Structures are given as C-alpha cells and as structure tokens.
Structure prediction request, 132 residues.
Amino acid sequence: MARARAAGFTWEQIAERAPGYTRVHGAEAPEVLFNEVAVPRCGLGEPYVSWRCRDCEGIVLDRGPYGGHPVDTEPGHRAGCERLGRDITGYVTDLLAEHEVDARVARDVGDDLDQGPSPARPMHFDGPALEL
Prediction:
C-alpha cells in the first residue's frame, strides 16, 4: 500500500483495486483498508502508513483517507514539494465545489462589507456607548 501511495494513488483508488474491501460497520472501503495496513504512531497511538514522496524525497506519515488538509494528513513532505502542492490544489478545489453555495454567500457578504451598511439596512447599536 505504501508503494501505491508513493506512486500517487489515492486511498480510494487503492481500495477500488484491492479485492474484498467494501463498506464495513459504517466505514468506507478506503478507511477499512487503511485501518488494516496502518501502524500506531509511537507514543500517540495515531495510525499511519509511511512512504517516501517521489517528488520531494521526504518521508511522509500518511494519516489515511479521512479528509482534511494535505499538510495535516501527510506530514513529512519537504518545502516546495510539487505533489503536496497538487494535493493542496485538489483539496481546495473539491472543498470549494462542495461548498459552492457557501462560497457565493461569503462573496456576497464580503461585497456587503466592502460597501458598508446599506440604506435599507441601517446599522445601529443598542448597547452602552464606548468611550475611547
């Protein structure tokens, strides 16, 4: 599994090709696979699979297919690693696609903040006056 991860395959792609890995007790196939091959991290008990990144030669402690930012889930890449850069770009792209509506709302709120309070929605404060 470590060689497949080092070669750039995702946990999902590995699970698709591994015979017998399916959803078990609510866990998806990539999670089941990871839990079978991962080893506990010394002193912390967090499972990981280690592999050498082919792009940066760093030793990566892969924390599995549980989502999260690649910097957090794959510590060990060296500064400027192209693979880590691609993974981060993919993560952000997927996150924005999943939350497209949220991103639109955030842009609208940002536009409102840039323009200040609208006449239709005047801002007021009912609390005590602040002395500066």
Q: What stands out?
A: The chain has a mean pLDDT of 76.
